[in-house]
Write a structure and sequence with these properties.
This protein is of the alpha/beta class. It has helices at residues 27-30, 35-49, 62-74, 89-97, 117-130, 133-139, 150-157, 178-187, 192-200, 206-220, 236-250, 272-276, 280-285, 307-318, 333-351, 362-375; strands at 2-6, 54-58, 81-84, 105-110, 140-145, 161-165, 225-229, 266-269, 290-297, 325-330. The strands form 2 sheets. The protein has a 5-stranded mixed sheet with strand order 1-10-9-7-8.
């Protein structure tokens, strides 16, 4: 990844001590090199593709975003797969009505913990639609940690094919595990191993540290909104993945010493020309509390300019001396994923926080479970 910076005005020169991250210590990076992970995923994807026309991935947050990011990048809007990441009854009923035949559908249920409420609720509903143990074995695949949980117990009970989620990899860092790789393998089985070589070619560049320093400097200037703004259609899902990675990893109340953590910016993602026509006005003339991050595919540089390319390149240029911004030049989506993971871990080290936990969401989970227990048998999504 390479960085082009356009920062003007007040720029506080900080004495920033950024440590280089030893990627060998982190499984998030090592998984991109493990042939066993990629081969197991490809084997299962080929089994599924040989028997089914449609594959539906059920998962929330990190159990969905990585797969969306990779599959959309290499096969945008593929009709082969779909992602169910909502329990709004309207969503469920509408999606079900669009299925011509349940016999042609394979379901992949993903939950790192094996107890995600939404995923379990959808699983229970889909199970009733098949209502046959042999059909469940044929139509269901599970991705979860190899430990005692509702999902793992369910997989064992019905002898379902189960791919293990690494115990030491958090959901938002799981794009290069079976979670993210399975959708990619389903839509791109012929080039899947070629894509593995792309992931393996990633390396740490000096621009990663420079990017981290730019982000820290934006905080020192009071730019508390960090805007992730890809134009390329293939990065539509990446920006949402990056937002979760940033927000859950860096937004912490306490540091590792139990003291109040340093404040960080709120990540917000925009996409393409459509948001140029919706929020650019406020970015240019509103409060100067925003730091923009644009993206440039290095392979597009020598292509003939289109209207799209003009807008993609001239919008950042129009912000020069108005709004602080940087442009990231990347080679592939793997370059972006691994680079962002590296930078987030580096920023976590700088902030002296734990970038791998998310204690702020635990209270809501407890309240959900208490409410469900008090209700007894809530209305099913499939009624």
């Amino acid at each position: 990844m390479r960085l082009k910076s356009n920062v003007f005005g007040k720029y506080t020169e900080l004495e920033v001590d950024l440590h280089d991250i030893e990627i060998e210590k982190y499984p998030y990076f090592k998984l991109s090199y493990q042939d066993s992970v990629w081969s197991r995923v490809l084997e299962r994807a080929k089994e599924i593709n040989g028997s089914f026309d449609k594959v539906i991935f059920v998962g929330m947050g990190g159990s969905s975003m990585g797969g969306k990011t990779l599959s959309h990048y290499y096969s945008p809007f593929s009709s082969k797969i779909d992602f169910w990441d909502s329990i709004d009854p309207v969503f469920i009923k509408t999606k079900l009505s669009q299925i011509d035949s349940l016999e042609n559908v394979h379901w992949v249920f993903t939950s790192k913990s094996g107890g995600t409420l939404e995923t379990i609720e959808i699983l229970n509903g889909i199970e009733r639609l098949y209502n046959d143990e042999e059909k469940l074995k044929k139509h269901f695949t599970i991705i979860t940690e190899d430990k005692d949980s509702k999902l793992k117990t369910y997989a064992n009970k019905y002898h379902l094919k189960c791919l293990d989620h690494p115990l030491d990899v958090g959901g938002r860092f799981s794009a290069l595990t079976a979670v993210g790789l399975m959708p990619l393998a389903v839509v791109c089985p012929d080039i899947f191993l070629q894509l593995q070589s792309e992931a393996q070619s990633w390396e740490v560049t000096p621009d990663l540290k420079e990017f981290s320093k730019n982000i820290i400097a934006s905080w020192s200037r009071g730019e508390w909104i960090s805007v992730l703004w890809p134009y390329d259609e293939r990065l539509r899902e990446f920006a949402g993945w990056a937002q979760q990675l940033w927000a859950e990893s860096l937004g912490k109340k306490l540091d590792l010493n139990g003291k109040p953590a340093k404040p960080v910016s709120m990540p917000v993602y925009l996409h393409g020309c459509k948001d140029q026509h919706s929020v650019l006005q406020q970015i240019v003339e509103g409060q100067k509390d925003k730091f923009l991050i644009f993206f440039e595919n290095s392979s597009r540089k020598n292509e003939k300019m289109s209207l799209f390319d003009i807008m993609r390149t001239k919008t950042p240029e129009s912000l020069n001396n108005k709004v602080n911004h940087v442009t990231i030049s990347y080679d592939s989506v793997f370059d972006l994923i691994l680079s962002f993971e590296y930078v987030i871990i580096q920023l976590g080290d700088f902030l002296q926080i734990d970038p791998f936990d998310q204690p702020g969401v635990e209270d809501s989970k407890i309240l959900f479970k208490q409410s469900l227990s008090a209700m007894g048998s809530p209305q099913s999504l499939f009624e």
